[in-house]
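Incident review: delayed structure delivery

Summary: a single-chain prediction request sat in the queue longer than the usual turnaround. Root cause was a stuck worker, restarted by the on-call engineer. No data loss occurred. The affected request and its eventual output are reproduced below so the record is complete for anyone auditing the incident later.

Affected input:
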Amino acid sequence: MCGVTSNGPIIRGQHVTLTCNMTYYPKTQQGALPRATISSSIAWQSAAGTPTTHPPVTHADGGVKLQVDVTTLASGTEIPSYNCTSTFDFSDDRSTDITDPQVALNSVSWTCITKPVLISCTY
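Output delivered after worker restart:
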């Protein structure tokens, strides 16, 4: 999920916070931990503003929540659409013995795209 978290109309000159968060579950079926180590990250595209990355939070159900906020200044007629991308890199924790089944080590990413938000002005 990603988007503007400020309530009410956005006024030109106001600092606005956009939040991006997602939860992933690093478990296989039957609840066994995967044999690959997962390295995760989440980030806004650089044009979005000044980012604040929160530490990952592990929930009781095993889900890991990633969150990053970005602060931007409302100017012009709208806050444009921005991208927030979560990336997952995998490394194999077991030997590379030919008899040991291998795991896929390809990186995976997911991108959330915000909707543009109109900016109001005061007279």
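Verification: The radius of gyration is 19 Å.
Action items: add queue-age alerting; document worker restart procedure.
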